[in-house]
Amino acid sequence: MVKNLLKACCMIAALTAAGQAAAETYTVGSGGTYRPFEFENSQKQLEGFDIDIIKAIAKGRRL
Q1: pLDDT in tens, 33-57
Q2: Three-state secondary structure call for residue 38
Q3: Strands (E), 1-63
């Protein structure tokens, strides 16, 4: 009985936290000074491995 109550409380807490996380804003900072991980291209936009990873995470989380 206690285990089921604990499981239910954990599930409610997880679902509540997941609903709140979707409303948050994520800010990512980068200096753009460490090739090939991050750098500025000729149009002053950041490119590189780290930037690609950040974009993939954002796409996966639908941000």
Answers
A1: 888 889 988 998 889 999 999 999 9
A2: strand
A3: 33-34, 38-40, 46-47
Q: Give me the phi and psi of 59, to 5 degrees please.
A: -65, -40
Rounded to whole angstroms, the Cα distance separating 45 from 39 reads 8
Q: 């989380």: which residue's tokens?
A: 61
Using alpha carbons, select from 37, 41, 42, 40 the residue that is nearest to residue 54: 37
Long-range CB pairs of 33-41, under 8 A, 24+ apart, other chains included:
none
Mean pLDDT, the chain, integer: 80
In degrees rounded to 5, what are phi and psi of residue 30?
A: -155, 140
